[in-house]
Design brief:
The protein is α/β, with parallel strands linked by helices and 340 residues long. It contains 12 helices and 14 strands. It has an 8-stranded parallel beta sheet with strand order 3-4-5-8-9-10-11-14. The radius of gyration is 19 Å and the shape is globular.
Length: 340
């Protein structure tokens, strides 16, 4: 894998870096992050010649969008604000932010503004959501717009948000229409029944969770719908390893996941391969996957993600994972690197 590899989103002509930057940690996912630290993260990522950003109103009640917008503008801490054409930005609709002093911070740090998200997949609510996102981002457009977590709102989504996004794409306001979810089943339904360019599938096609492999990924490959993999570390366990308190899907990892990661770590040790490298490179080997978007809360984490994405993993490592039935036979794995 090379950090500057790019892939097209569907048939849109829009190309993205295969190693993107997820925006949730910029807003204090699990741990607080300052404005300055968030700006340095973006600056470091841009400094690697990369430019594919993913954010959402939900991430820190608008803080992720605000910080990302500041870092990409003349107000930021970057050496020079990048030209708009030099980066691709995705955000989401489906939640509007309203004043709420009693909100539950859940997985977010405590120093966030007194607003909270409410579900709204209506046509007008979707247009309002984009307008508010553009104001926070200080941009005149975004490239990819995802419908965010419509798990219990399929019909409302297709009648409201989906129609709004089709109009925005037709008018050239956005380049790509997508859906972002932490599940594969409903994404497959969207793929079968709608006209989508891409999906953000978080946590369901990783080194330890292959849920999306059976139906979603083949269907998307057939229909030329690009998959963007969010949560490649599954909320932490594929970054930390099988340690006490490691998280999987935003909560303490269950014992069977911990044991699976422990077995993978043993194979990593035998082949001199960092667990993070395997976690980042495994999903992008599938032909339906355009990009992977790990988050980062420090410049050092950005540098490490780049290093892990480019780490040369021996073919024998993937072979042993198959032999031990830790990855399915039908799951593509990265090809051997050509000789220097």
């Amino acid at each position: 894998m090379k950090k500057d590899d790019r892939a097209e989103i569907g048939r849109t002509g829009l190309k993205v870096n295969r190693l993107g930057l997820g925006g949730a940690p910029l807003a204090g996912l699990y741990h607080g992050v300052t404005d300055e630290a968030a700006a340095r993260v973006v600056d470091t990522y841009l400094g690697h010649g990369l430019g594919f950003f993913d954010t959402a109103p939900l991430y820190g009640s608008g803080v992720s969008e605000t910080r990302l917008g500041a870092a990409l503008s003349s107000r930021g801490h970057v050496r020079k604000a990048p030209a708009r054409e030099s980066f691709v930005l995705a955000t989401k609709v489906g939640r509007l932010l309203v004043p709420d002093r009693a909100r539950d911070q859940d997985v977010w740090s405590d120093d966030l503004p007194p607003v909270g998200p409410v579900f709204d997949y209506s046509y007008d609510g979707t247009l309002r959501s984009l307008e508010e996102s553009l104001a926070r981002l200080e941009l005149d457009r975004v490239d990819i717009l995802h419908i965010h977590d419509p798990d219990n709102h399929y019909e409302e989504t297709m009648e409201g948000s989906y129609r709004a996004l089709l109009r925005l794409r037709e008018e050239g306001v956005i380049r790509a229409v997508g859906v972002g979810m932490n599940q594969a089943k409903m994404l497959a339904r969207f793929a079968a029944e709608g006209d989508f360019d891409c999906f953000l599938c978080a946590g369901r096609y990783t080194l330890v969770d292959h849920t999306a492999l059976k139906r979603l990924l083949p269907l998307c490959e057939e229909r030329n719908i690009s998959i963007i993999i969010g949560g490649p570390y599954n909320s932490g366990i594929l970054a930390q390893g099988a340690v006490d308190g490691a998280k999987f899907d935003y909560r303490k990892a269950p014992s069977h996941i911990v044991e699976k990661v422990r077995r993978i770590e043993a194979i990593c040790g035998r082949h001199g391969t960092p667990l993070k490298a395997a976690a980042l490179q495994f999903p992008v080997a599938h032909p339906a996957v355009a990009a992977v978007i790990p988050g980062a809360r420090s410049p050092e984490e950005v540098d490490e993600n780049v290093l892990m994405f480019e780490f040369e993993i021996p073919a024998d490592f993937w072979s042993e994972l198959r032999e031990e039935r830790l990855v399915p036979e039908e799951a593509p794995t990265p090809p051997p690197l050509p000789p220097a």
